[in-house]
């Protein structure tokens, strides 16, 4: 049986672990009673003072680790520090998958734990292994190749914006009557080469508008 940890003396004369007593206050309805004699022991805010003299004596008692396979021995005051690092202490998976075992096998378990989080290669958000593949397929930052073959890799979240601005996107000349279709990057060159043609088309358009106005 474990020795008391931070012993507290109650008004009834009995002594209990401070941690155990704190748990008792949390789980019990008032009035809280001594676990030994069942007398009422007051409320938590009346003070849970550690019995200093008894605590010193208990801390000096030599104990050994109760975890199977562990050979550690030391003073009772060293117990809590040892438990936090004991390779044979029973622990549950740090990533919350529910697996439990001794601490020494947890490192090996972590290599395949489905709940362990890894960073998405695109957005760098931490996702559990079981959901990572699906997340990366739908990730807004996953790059896609431009369908206009400009060579750019665009995150899904910026894909439509890129398509509108891509220099390889095929566009039609904006001058009415000119039916030239070209990559967007050639618009300026086309405008320079067909300046006279465009001017004539625009003049014809203006003339047609004037005729329509006169007819009305």
Automatic annotation (TrEMBL):
Domain of life: Eukaryota
SUPFAM superfamilies in the record: RING/U-box, TRAF domain-like
InterPro entries reported for this sequence: Znf-RING_euk (IPR027370), Znf_RING (IPR001841), Znf_RING/FYVE/PHD (IPR013083), Znf_RING_CS (IPR017907), Znf_TRAF (IPR001293)
Residue span(s) of domain TRAF-type: 82-133, 135-178
Keywords: Metal-binding, Zinc, Zinc-finger
Endpoints of the signal sequence: none
A molecular function (GO) term: zinc ion binding
Segments forming TRAF-type zinc fingers: 82-133, 135-178
Annotated RING-type domain residues: 10-38
Protein name per the record: TNF receptor-associated factor 5-like
Organism: Actinia tenebrosa (Australian red waratah sea anemone)
């Amino acid at each position: 049986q474990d020795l008391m940890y931070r012993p507290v003396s109650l008004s009834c004369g009995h002594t209990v672990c401070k941690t155990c007593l704190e748990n008792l206050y949390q789980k019990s309805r008032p009035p809280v009673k001594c676990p030994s004699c069942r007398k009422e022991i007051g409320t938590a805010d009346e003070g849970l003072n550690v019995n200093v003299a008894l605590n010193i004596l208990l801390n000096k008692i030599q104990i050994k680790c109760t975890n199977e396979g562990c050979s550690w021995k030391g003073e009772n005051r060293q117990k809590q520090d040892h438990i936090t690092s004991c390779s044979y202490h029973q622990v549950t998976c740090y990533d919350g998958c529910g697996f439990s075992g001794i601490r020494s096998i947890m490192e090996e378990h972590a290599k395949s734990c489905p709940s362990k989080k890894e960073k998405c290669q695109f957005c760098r958000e931490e996702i559990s292994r079981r959901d990572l593949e699906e997340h990366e397929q739908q990730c807004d930052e996953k790059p896609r190749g431009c369908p206009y073959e400009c060579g750019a890799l665009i995150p899904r979240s910026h894909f439509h914006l890129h398509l509108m601005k891509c220099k390889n996107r095929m566009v039609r000349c904006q001058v009415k009557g000119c039916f030239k279709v070209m990559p967007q990057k050639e618009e300026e060159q086309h405008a320079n080469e067909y300046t006279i043609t465009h001017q004539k088309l625009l003049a014809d358009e203006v003339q047609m508008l004037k005729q329509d106005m006169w007819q009305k």
